[in-house]
Specification:
The complex is a heterodimer of chains A (about 400) and B (about 500). Chain A has about 400 residues and is of the alpha+beta class. Helix content of chain A is about 30%, strand content about 25%. Chain B is globular. Classes of the chains: A alpha+beta (about 400), B alpha+beta (about 500). The interface between A and B is large, with 94 and 98 residues.
Chain lengths: ~400, ~500
């Protein structure tokens, strides 16, 4: 964010239309800022104007029986979570809070920012990501036009699914004014089974096998020694949710299935379990180390090989852990001007997947590609899609890609 | 017949021989159909109301052939209509008289099953059900299960974002695929996603899903496979009114229960089903609800008790719980037979596909009843009640003068009703040509222009499946920096093509 930028308050769609039409006329680049909790995410690219969505706030529709909620984009997430929790519901994709990683006050994110980065947590592997829960939205595109897409119903294939496109677009296509989300019942209880004492590779294999049982494990994480809970050995953490009777039966089933694995089992009851997953959701085991943080998404079976390759190439790994049964890797490395990008991307490209630089200083994020480089035809298509919403690149110029 | 398609372009028709010669050079022997009788087999998909004879039918065997056909079409400025198994209910793969019909049926191999990563790589012509069959020995399945699953192909499922009876809990196609290989107009191939989750940058995988063959041609799909729930039990609930049935459905969800399946049928459908192949449905019920609960044994038994209590409290007049797998399947037998059963009580039927906010179901039914009387046609109803997706079946007789037009008009009015209740035109069948001219009921011209600009990003010449989804054709160049004001379609009475 640039202190010299002009702040424009957006209270409604007409404000956004006016601001973006002016930006087009004057060739002024614009950042979209809710609470600013993700200002240090993405490429460092100062913009001429800041469009503040702070005043664009409030829940506009909530029908618990219909599992649907609409809110203006600047609505604090904490407000939405409290409102739906009172009805025994939640956002099942478990949006992460970036504060432990990026600094600033905790839990201040807005719902618009959550969608802009497709924020999803450890439950993503079973419940889906934010992109799977966005039913529809209203926005003002980079060209200053008010557009809606999707709806408020669960099942809808009318027209292109632009919800998928805006989810994770980092504000580069449109300023969201209102989003409609699917909310789901909160389960009766949760519990975490820890399988402790295996090697890193063995623990990951256990997680993958557990994910292929009918035990409906909703999160599968591997914590290296020291990453959490004060344990000095590797711990595979398996979260179970549902009615008490079902959770107990599935936990016993898992213990029976892996009784010969050589692991020692411990159980975390609801409160402890919830506390652990809140830390993992926010990537605290890597966030609490000083250094650059990367987030890698690969096929679960490739997770270990990718990390091994990065280690062997000599990258100074300070901390790491695996989520999504090995498919999501959080890495913290000693800082370097190039953020060890070549080593990391080479390791990921050898297997397939992507690597995103999440935490680094401004200079590094201005010079290193924060998002994974794309092959030429895909990069060209991506740019054409961008320009279909924002032909003059006025929205978040350079935030995702240097070329737009 | 009210549908107007873009008129065949004489300059394309005139170059048919050249096109055939060049396609013959690209395709393997047997990959090109030029003979009129053989082309007739492709004149429509499962939306049989409208037909057209394709200019030629190309049946490529390799990805290279697909890309070469796409490149040739771009070079010669010829239209392409992609087709999977041809089961679209909205005319998504209806051919164009001046277009190549690109059939993907030869892409029928399962390339890889990767149990450890819980996914499978398949070619687009593989049948939906064949994926589940291929992995069932290991206890896995592919979740989306559209009624046409014994015939429809996964490529078509991606194009239409197909659903099924289990999508409230397990999602639609878009929630169950990880990767796509896509051939673009011009012949370039892009890979979207893979075996990993949530590729950053724009989610073109999500955008492609449900794009009805207007953006690219899918050449490979990586699907997620899930472990089969260890058990499933069904409940059959009868109610004295549709409103009570709908209230019970709402109460189940309000209690925090998300059933694997939650279906409703009205009395007309129940009677048709019982006449077609009796399966023990109560004939006195005005609404019949099927609830399926799946998961581990302990959980399912617990939830069955919860739902039983809710059903009693909501005044169910029939309440049966399956005690065996055979009985559970029996509960479903009638629902699965609903469409063929309805075709026995009327010579023809038109299957609609709106979605409404579930709580508006009684209003929707009352409104439909009124409309049906107004048009003098019968309507039978099956619903995916859990997610508010309605399938009104409009009963008509195509041999009767004016019945087709009346059925079509009634269908349009029913969809307008869905939109007015806060719903949408299509929940899972797609817009295609069927609902194309209704898009303006749901979207403003500005909304539609933005969607068409997205198409232009993929297909600047507008040659891929034109005439589908969008009520007007534009040249991409028209979408410059012009600001269009107002929401209403301008000159709504002008013919659009």
């Amino acid at each position: 964010m640039d202190a010299s930028a002009t702040i424009v308050e957006i209270r409604d769609a007409p404000d956004a239309m006016e601001a973006l039409r002016a930006a087009n006329a004057q060739d002024a680049s614009c950042a979209i800022v809710g609470a600013g909790s993700k200002a240090r995410l993405g490429r460092h690219a100062p913009q001429a104007r800041l469009l503040s969505t702070r005043a664009l706030s409030g829940v506009t529709l909530y029908e618990p029986d219909e599992l649907v909620l609409s809110a203006r984009a600047g609505t604090p997430l904490i407000e939405i979570e409290a409102l739906i929790a009172a009805q025994g519901q939640r956002l099942a994709f478990e949006p992460m809070d970036h504060a432990p990683l990026l600094g600033g006050a905790p839990r201040r994110a807005t719902v618009g920012g959550m969608i802009a980065v497709n924020a999803s947590g450890p439950r993503r592997i079973k419940a889906g990501a934010a992109r799977d829960h966005l039913l529809g939205f209203r926005c003002v595109t980079g060209r200053g036009e008010e557009v809606k897409s999707g709806g408020r119903v669960m099942k809808n294939v009318t027209g292109y699914d632009l919800s998928k496109l805006v989810c994770g677009s980092f504000g580069t296509l449109a300023l969201l004014t209102e989003v409609t989300l699917k909310v789901l019942p909160r389960p009766e209880t949760e519990e975490t089974l820890l399988a402790i004492g295996l090697s890193e590779a063995e623990s990951l294999s256990l997680l993958r096998r557990a994910s292929a049982t009918p035990c409906e494990v909703c999160s599968l994480t591997l914590l290296p020694p020291g990453a959490a809970l004060g344990l000095d050995a590797h711990a595979a953490a398996l979260r179970l949710e549902g009615p008490e009777i079902s959770v107990a039966a599935r936990r016993d089933d898992l213990i029976a299935r892996f009784s010969k694995s050589g692991a020692r089992f411990e159980i975390l009851k609801a409160t402890e379990s919830a506390a652990l997953w809140a830390r993992l959701r926010d990537a605290v085991p890597v966030a609490e180390h000083a250094g650059q943080v990367w987030r890698l998404s690969v096929a679960p079976t490739d997770g270990f090989s990718v990390v091994e390759r990065i280690r062997r190439a000599g990258a100074p790994l300070l901390a790491h852990f695996y989520d999504w049964a090995g498919g999501l890797i959080w890495l913290c490395l000693a800082s370097a001007p190039d953020a060890h990008a070549a080593i990391i991307r080479e390791a990921v490209d050898a297997h397939g997947g992507h690597a995103t630089l999440i935490r680094a200083d401004e200079e590094t994020r201005a010079t290193i590609e924060v998002f994974h480089p794309q092959p030429a035809p895909l990069a060209a298509l991506t740019r054409r899609v961008k320009e279909s919403f924002d032909p003059l690149h006025v929205l978040e110029r350079g935030r995702m890609r240097a070329e737009f | 017949m009210t549908l107007i398609m873009p008129a065949p372009e004489p300059e394309i028709m005139a170059r048919r021989d050249e096109l055939i010669a060049r396609l013959r050079a690209i395709l393997s022997p047997g990959g090109l159909i030029v003979d009129e009788v053989a082309r007739r087999a492709y004149e429509c998909d499962a939306f049989t109301m409208y037909r057209a004879l394709p200019l030629v039918v190309a049946l490529p065997e390799t990805v290279e052939e697909v890309c070469a056909v796409m490149a040739l079409a771009a070079e010669m400025d010829v239209k392409i209509v992609p087709r999977g198994a041809g089961t679209s209910l909205s005319g998504g793969s209806m051919p164009l008289e001046d277009g190549i019909l690109l059939g993907m049926s030869k892409f029928n191999r399962i390339l890889e099953i990767d149990y450890e990563n819980r996914c499978a790589r398949v070619e687009p012509g593989v049948q939906n059900l064949a994926i589940s069959k291929a992995v069932e020995a290991e206890g896995f399945y592919y979740a989306p299960d559209p009624s046409s699953q014994i015939a429809c192909s996964i490529g078509g499922n991606v194009a239409e974002n197909a659903g099924g009876v289990h999508c409230l809990k397990y999602g639609l196609t878009t929630n169950n695929i990880l990767g796509l290989n896509v051939a673009l107009m011009g012949g370039e191939l892009v890979r979207l996603g893979g075996k990993h989750l949530d590729s950053e940058a724009y989610d073109l995988l999500g955008l492609m899903t449900g794009s009805e063959g207007l953006l690219g041609v899918v050449t490979e799909v990586t699907v997620r496979i899930l472990q089969k729930p260890s058990t499933a039990r069904g409940l059959l609930l009868g109610f004295a009114s549709v409103a009570e049935g709908a209230r019970c459905v709402g109460a189940i969800i309000a209690h925090g229960v998300i059933p694997g399946g939650l279906e409703m049928m009205d009395k007309a459908t129940v009677h048709a089903v019982e006449r077609f192949q009796p399966c023990g449905y109560p004939l006195d019920a005005e609404a019949l609800v099927i609830v399926e609960l799946d998961g581990t044994q302990a959980e399912v038994d617990h939830l069955v008790a919860v739902v039983e209590d809710i059903a009693r409290a909501e005044g169910a007049t029939t309440l049966r719980v399956s005690t065996s797998e055979a009985e559970r399947l029996q509960f479903w037998a009638g629902r699965k037979n609903a469409f063929p059963a309805v075709s026995c009580i009327a010579p023809d039927y038109l299957c609609m596909d709106g979605t409404i906010p579930r709580g508006r179901l009684p209003d929707a039914l009352a409104g439909m009843d009124k409309l049906a009387k107004q048009y003098g046609l019968g309507v039978a109803n099956v619903f995916h009640a859990g997610d508010g997706n309605l399938h009104p079946l409009i009963l008509y007789d195509a041999s009767k003068e004016g019945d087709v037009e009346r059925a079509e008009k009634l269908g349009f009015d029913i969809l307008r009703l869905c939109v007015s209740l806060g719903g949408v035109l299509t929940g899972e069948h797609g817009v295609g040509v069927e609902k194309r001219d209704l898009m303006g009921e749901m979207f403003s011209e500005v909304d539609l222009n933005q969607q068409m600009r997205v198409k232009c990003a993929f297909d600047p010449a507008g040659r891929l499946n034109p005439g589908k989804v969008f009520p007007t054709l534009h040249r991409c160049a028209e979408f410059g920096m012009m600001h269009v004001s107002g929401g209403a379609m301008r000159f709504p009475d002008l013919p659009r093509f």
